Amino acid sequence: MVTATAGASLVRPVARTARRPRITAGSAALTGLAWVLALVFFFPILWMLLLSFRSESDAASPRLFAAFTGVNYDGMFSGNVRIALLNSLNASITSTVLVILLAVPAAYALSIKPVAKWTDVLFFFLSTKMMPIVAALLPVYLITNNLGMNDNIWALIVMYMAANLPIAIWMLRSFLLEVPREIIEAAQVDGANLPTILRRVIGPVITPGLAAAALICFIFSWNEFLFALRLTGQDAKTAPVFLAGSIAPEGLFLAHLCAVAFVVCLPVLLAGWAAQDKLVRGLSLGAVK
Amino acid sequence: MTAATVEYKSDMAPPVSALPGSSFSSRMKRRMPLLPALLFTIVVTQLPFLYTIYISFIGWDRDHPEFGHKFVGLKNFRAVFSDSALRQAVFTTVRLTVLVVLVAVLLGLSLALLLDRRFPGRGVVRTLLIAPFLIMPMAAALLWKHAFYNAQFGLINAVINGVRGWFGNHTPTSWSILTDHPLLAVAIPLIWQWTPFMMLILLAGLQSQPGDVLEAARVDGATNFQIFRSITLPHLRQYLELSVLLGSIYILQAFDAIYTITRGISNTTNLPFAIFQTQVEAGDYGLTSAEGVVVVVATIVVATFVLRTVSSLFKEEA
User: How far is residue B24's CA from residue A157's CA, in Å, rounded to a whole number?
Assistant: First the structure.
């Protein structure tokens, strides 16, 4: 499989570039279709953005064009929105950093110097991803209460670490398998210890893997709602919980809601767009390159 | 661009170093890097489950602390298995997952096929298409509910009323997706978000097809459809399996969309939302724990089967 892959990667670019696309009516139609579908899929986001720049009364009667106003973004980066954004940043970034710190050595022990029964360990990690997270909601809620950790961002950080650790281990392992064994053996012969091998030999090879793992962990933590709803109150409230609470029980709220939604979506949207090439490998736990 | 491959088959290649030697200390040395992650995962994911099992044998009503926490034997489990609403939730979970995963895979495959060619603006099209997956699920649910589904202010009914207006019918429609097709209302945002995910994995699969084989087939006069059926689809099989497996893991756990869009009305309550309701709204901690235990045990049975399939896929080509 590995050699077949290498062979394919040698052959493919030649074969692909050799065929110059011919412009026919059929291919123009397919191109048009691709563009139309892309716009259809993107439209809800565009609509959210359009509504966020309208007055509430304009947003309540849907038309394509309406007067522009920035009023919904007033005070967006102060008060409660700011607290929620900072909490989300804290939970996502701290949990991601800690996950990577735990996952790198673990992935090492499951690939380069595998422990006995390494497949069992690998599948144990994966199996925790299949468990219904809602089943952990009550015990975790009760335990955090007993520890006096309710409305404490660290409770969320620990839960996000547990949720993302299997993903990071599986992904980083798939990158570590690409480290040439000769280099590691040569380093060992030269008497390098584990930290040195990690830093000097493996580090450079898995840097793209770290970026992909960090991106996926960041996205999942940023977007998580269920545990954030249950474990936080006023102080540690994260962006999704704040967003869910920005619906007014009465009166018009759609334009304001769209502005808040756009602001809380923006970090992940930008990170995901910037690192598009890392998404596939991350989402497939490293299985698809 | 490098060739893409579903690595899980070649993953099971022989380990780089030989398996641990006989000495205890060398085995411990190998385990050291693994222990922090393993202990953390066991403590955070397994211990709470032991606590859940304990609570599932207890009568614990949050709203009546005066009753205390008494051992009630299998009472909670009997309640779980005689609860028709919970059976309905199982059914809804399966229906929602099948609907979302199936439609998302089919749409994702179509989009991947469209993007597996060179055309002007392909990068922009790809960028626009993955955007829905990057939207916060809570934001997506709120957006669809209030900006699209709302019978008064939503875009869908505005368009329907506009079209009716052209035909001289100026009474606003009484149709609403929220009341007429609630499960579809939950499914649409999920399909919208997960189609790009399927597209990305399947596109990677398409682009890893060996170019020389495709070329040879074309030279031999195969039609596009023949190439798709005889070369592309068999090659895509493992990518399709992977996307269905990963998609199902996430859609089975769908919560935000149901919590936001329907709150579980008219049979849109899936298992996660049902357990959440027993716990947070009814406050029946014993029952919610028993539900959790039953669902986890059922998941273990299904997951063992799935993992066995996955690991046999691993070994197939090793």
Answer: 35
What is the pLDDT, as a whole number, of residue A242? 93
- pLDDT (0 to 100) of residue A265: 95
Whether B61 contacts B283, CB under 8 Å? yes
To the nearest whole Å, the CA of B8 is away from the closest chain A CA by: 5
Q: Do B10 and A2 make contact, defined as CB atoms within 8 angstroms?
A: yes
- Residue B153 and residue A59: Cβ atoms within 8 Å? yes
Q: Looking at residue A183, which CATH number applies to its domain?
A: 1.10.3720.10
Which of B200, B209, B201 is CA-nearest to residue B228? B209
Size of interface A-B (CB pairs under 8 A): 345
pTM of the full structure: 0.86
A107-116, A137-146, B94-103, B128-137: range with lowest mean pLDDT: A107-116
CB contact under 8 A, B148 and A44: yes
With CB atoms and an 8 Å threshold, state whether A45 touches B142.
no
CB B55 within 8 A of CB B75: no
Q: Which residue of B has its CA nearest to A289?
A: B4
Any residues with CB less than 8 A from the CB of B57 and at least 6 apart, and which? B71, B72, B73, B74, B76, B286
Q: Is B306 a residue whose pLDDT tops 80?
A: no
**CATH fold of the domain at B84-275:** MetI-like fold (1.10.3720)
CB neighbours of B27 closer than 8 A, spacing ≥ 6? A115, A116, B20, B21
Interface test with A, best of B1, B11, B39, B116 (most A CBs within 10 A): B11
- Kindly state whether residue A96 falls inside one of the protein's structural domains: yes
User: Residue A123 domain-assigned?
Assistant: yes
Its sign, for the CA torsion A231, A233, A235, A237, is positive
Which of A182-196, A271-285, B279-293, B294-308 holds the top average pLDDT? B279-293
Asked whether the ipTM of the predicted complex exceeds the cut of 0.90, the reply is no
> What is the CA angle A39-A44-A45, rounded to 5?
90
The answer to whether residue A28 sits within a structural domain is no
Domain that holds residue A238: 76-283
Q: Could you read off the pLDDT of B104-123 as tens digits, one per residue?
A: 999 999 999 999 988 888 99
Q: Test A2 with B246 for CB contact under 8 angstroms.
A: no
What residues of chain A lie within 8 A of the CB of B144, using their CB? 44
Angle between helix A153-176 and A118-130 (nearest 10): 140
- Out of A18, A62, A279, the one facing B153 most closely (by C-beta) is A62
Q: Which residue of B has its CA nearest to A193?
A: B29
pLDDT band at B310 (very low <50, low <70, confident <90, very high): low
Q: Average per-residue pLDDT in chain A?
A: 85
- B198 touches A at CB < 8 Å: no
Band of residue B303 on the pLDDT scale cut at 50, 70, 90: confident
The tally of domains found in chain A comes to 1
- The verdict on residue A247 lying in a domain is yes
Confidence of residue A214 (pLDDT cuts 50, 70, 90): very high
CB–CB contact B119 A5 (8 Å):
no
